[in-house]
Design a protein that fits this description.
Elements: E1 2-5, H1 19-22, E2 26-29, H2 38-45, E3 50-53, H3 60-65, E4 71-74, H4 84-89, E5 94-95, H5 102-118, H6 120-128, E6 152-156, H7 160-171, E7 175-179, H8 185-188, E8 192-193, H9 196-202, E9 205-208, H10 222-226, E10 232-236, H11 245-254, E11 257-262, E12 282-284, H12 293-311
Length: 321
């Protein structure tokens, strides 16, 4: 079996092993493949049997030009870069990685929140610049410091990651409410399920952990923000297009939203004209919630297991059955 990894660098910049895939066939790994030129993907896939991708598109055009492909594996949970309908027509299973970074992503959401509450990085830098050394007082702070105990966190999307975030928030003394189209017993043990409007109206902190669907795209917008408490904090390390970015920037600049912690934006890498780059009290990180080594190692293991299951004739985690 010939296996081609189209864009392996972000999954494995050198601290993991491709040995599991090498054991299953003749492996070629490319760090990056063009996101816009399908001819590069076509040339690199060639006569491969299995294609592994993270963000490189595998379109109908690519599949038509590479008739030897029998399997497409994702290095991610999302699979929107693959034309799954075209793959299904050709009998090609597309297998994703459904659960690998649950703890890491939940931890990161709380990390964004704690940075907003304390601005630890800013104050550490201030000390390094000598401001504490030359302070006339024994302490100082440049931002309001926020205690989370007793505040309400509303979580939109209460699956595995949302529940992980909820458990940590409860450990910090927060009251947790949640909105999800499919309530569960495990979720009910962590949070009180409420309507979406109640999340908007009563939350001090709103965390987005829902998938990106047509029904959720742009759900954080001028109208929904108007329903929120003055001074609300918004967290998003799910999908960037859940937020209408200009509307959030306007709300940050007016003070309606006190702060935002974002690990995702609508176009990645971020564009220089993104209005959130100049918005007040907006922390943006470069889509790294998923990236601790332990999390990426689990991703690699599942990727290998997915391909092994296909080889064994019993594919798993198939998104286009």
């Amino acid at each position: 079996m010939k296996i081609v990894v189209l864009d392996g660098y972000t999954e494995n910049p050198g601290d993991l092993s491709w040995g599991g895939l090498e054991a299953l066939g003749e492996l070629t790994v490319f760090d990056r493949t063009s996101l816009t030129d399908p001819h590069e993907a076509i040339a690199r896939i060639g006569d491969a049997d299995a294609v592994i991708t993270n963000k490189t598109p595998v379109s109908r055009q690519v599949l038509d030009a590479c008739p030897s492909v029998r399997y497409i594996g994702m290095l991610s949970t999302g699979y929107n870069v693959v034309d799954v309908a075209a793959a299904k027509e050709k009998g090609i299973p597309v297998c994703n990685i459904p659960t690998y970074g649950t703890d890491a992503v939940g931890q990161f959401a709380i990390g964004l929140l704690l940075e907003i509450c304390h601005h630890i990085g800013h104050h550490s830098h201030a000390v390094s610049e000598g401001r504490w050394e030359h302070s006339i007082d024994w302490c100082f702070w440049d931002y309001p410091l926020i205690e989370l105990a007793g505040l309400t966190m509303g979580i939109i999307g209460f699956g595995r990651i949302g529940q992980t975030t909820g458990r940590i928030a409860r450990a910090l003394g927060m009251d947790v409410i949640a909105y999800d189209g499919h309530p569960s017993d495990s979720g009910a043990s962590i949070a009180r399920y409420v309507t979406l409007d109640e999340v908007y109206a009563t939350s001090d902190v709103i965390a987005l952990h829902c998938p990106l669907f047509p029904s959720t795209e742009g759900m954080i917008n001028k109208a929904s923000i108007a329903k929120m408490k003055d001074g609300v904090i918004i967290l998003n390390n799910s999908r960037g297009p859940l937020i209408v970015e200009q509307d959030l920037a306007d709300a940050l600049n007016s003070g309606k939203v006190y702060a935002a912690g974002l690990d995702v934006v609508s176009t990645e890498p971020i564009l220089g004209d993104n209005p959130l780059l100049k918005a007040k009290n907006c922390i943006i990180t470069p889509h790294i919630s998923w990236a601790p080594k332990a999390s990426r190692a689990r991703l690699m293991d599942i990727c290998v297991a997915n391909l092994q299951a296909f080889v064994d004739g019993e594919p798993v985690n198939v998104v286009n059955p």
